[in-house]
Amino acid sequence: MQLPPGPETPRLYNMVRWIARPLPWLDELRAQFGNAFTLQLPRAGVPIVIFSEPSAVRDLWTGDPDTLHAGEANIILKSVLGKDSLLVLDGDRHLRERRLMLPPFHGDRMRAYGDTMREVTADEVARWPAGRPFSLHESTQAITLDVIMRTVFGVGSADPRMRPLRDALVKWTTLGTSRLGTAVLLMTPPEYADNIRQATQRGLGRILPWAKLVRAQLEVDRLIRDLITARRREGATGREDILSMLLEARDEAGAPMTDDQLRDEMLTLLVAGHETTATALAWTVHHLLEHPEWHDRIRAEVREVGTQELDKLVLLDAAIKETLRLTPILPMVGRVLAKPATIGGIAMPRGSVALACIYLVHRRPDLWPDPLRFDPNRFVGKKADPTTYFPFGGGVRRCLGMAFASYEMKIVLATILAKVDLANAPGKKIKLVRRGITFAPSGGMPVMLARRY
Q: What are the structural domains, with CATH classification, of the chain?
C-alpha cells in the first residue's frame, strides 16, 4: 500500500520534535507534504498517517468502529487511567461502559449541577487578590476540580473526606504534566508501564527522577479505592452523584461494575473532567483580554441576560467555540485500523494509525478565512460542520462529557464576567505550551484583578 510521504528523519528525532515543539512542526509538515502525511515514531512501530482533509475526517467519524479502534489509539493513557477506562476500550466493552456512564452528563441531571457551578465559581472569584498577579489557570483548575468532585462523589473538595484526594490529584497532575512527566508518558511503552512502576517502588528505583510521580499516582489510586469501599459500605441508594449511580448500575446481562472498573472510570472522570475544561476556560479569558471589543460585548450580554438563561448567551457561546477552534486543548484524535481500510482515499494497512488533526483542520484558510484571527462571529447563528470543527472528537467516540463541559464553561465564564474585570499581568507574554497530552497557556496565565462588581 502506498502511504503518503512524510519526513525521512530518524524515529527518535521525530519523537523529540513531537515532544518539544509539536504544533510548529505540524505546520511545517503540512506546508511540505500537504493535507496527509506519514509519520514514524519509535513507540508506535507502525505507520501513522496524519490527516487534515475533511473527507478523511468524515471517513473516521462514519467508519465501522470494529475496524477503527479509538481505544487502541488512546493506549498511551492506559498506564495513567487504567485498562478499564472508557477512553482505552473498544467494541462491546466500550459500548457497555458508555451506556452506564452516559446518564449523568445529559438532560436534567447535568443541569442540576448548574447552581453548584455558580457557587464554586463565586467562591473562587471572591478569593482573587487585588493589586498583584495571580494564576488564572490555577483558579480555573480549582473550580473545575471542585465541580467534578461534587459531581462524581456528591461532596466538594473542601469536605474533610475529599481533601486528601484533592491534594493528591493536584500533586499528581502537576508532576504528570511537567516536562519530566510528559516525557515519561510519551516515551514509556504501555506494556511495560506496570513493571516500571513496580520497579520504581523498590531499591534504587526509589531515587529515580520519576519516583515522585509514581508515588503520587499510587496515592491517588489508594484514595479512590478507599472512597469506593466506603460508599459500598454506606450504601448508594437515593444518592445523585456519579459514583453512587454507577454502583447501582447494571448492564444488559445484569452485571455490576467491579471495583477495578469503578476506580478507572472515577479517575478518568476526575482527570479528564477538570484538566481539559480548566485549560479551555483559561484560553477563553486570554482571547477576550486580547480582544477588548469582544470582551466588552460579551460582558454587556452577560449583564443583560444574567447567568441563568444560558441559551441567550449567544456571543459567549460563540467565543467559547472560537477559542476551541483557535486553541484546541488536544491537537488530534486517532483510530487504529483493526482491518485494512481506505481513509480519505488512501488505502491503509491493518495496524496502522489514522489521526484526524484538530489543530491543522481548524487552521485551514480555505475552511476558516483568516484562520489565525479570533472571530466569534464565525459561530453566531451557524452550525459547525463536524468534519471541519471537532474539538471534542467525533462519531460514536465523541467526548462523553462534551455537553457537560460546554454547560460548565458558559456558567463559569458568565459568573466571572458578571463579578469582575480582569487584565493581563504586565510584562507577561502568553504562549502555548505542552502539558502532558494537552496544550495550555504558559506560566499558568497570570492576570490582574482590575475591578469588582
A: 11-452 (1.10.630.10)
Check pLDDT > 80 for residue 197.
no
Quick: pLDDT tens for 388-404: 999 999 999 999 999 99
Cα separation, 59 vs 61, in Å, equals: 6
Helices (H), 132-258: 136-153, 163-176, 179-187, 190-200, 211-234, 242-248
Q: Can you list the alpha helix ranges (DSSP code H) found in 63-135?
A: 70-73, 78-81, 91-101, 107-111, 114-126
| Amino acid sitting at position 54 | P
Tally of CB atoms within 10 A around 411: 24
What crossing angle do the helices spanning 114-126 and 136-153 adopt, rounded to 10°? 140
What pLDDT digit, counting tens, does each position of 394-446 carry? 999 999 999 999 999 999 999 999 999 999 999 889 999 988 889 999 999 99
Angle between helix 179-187 and helix 11-20 axes, rounded to 10 deg: 140
Contact 83, 94 (CB under 8 A): no
Between the alpha carbon of residue 4 and those of residues 36, 48, 354, the distances in Å are: 6, 10, 12
Alpha-carbon span 333 to 398, nearest angstrom: 10
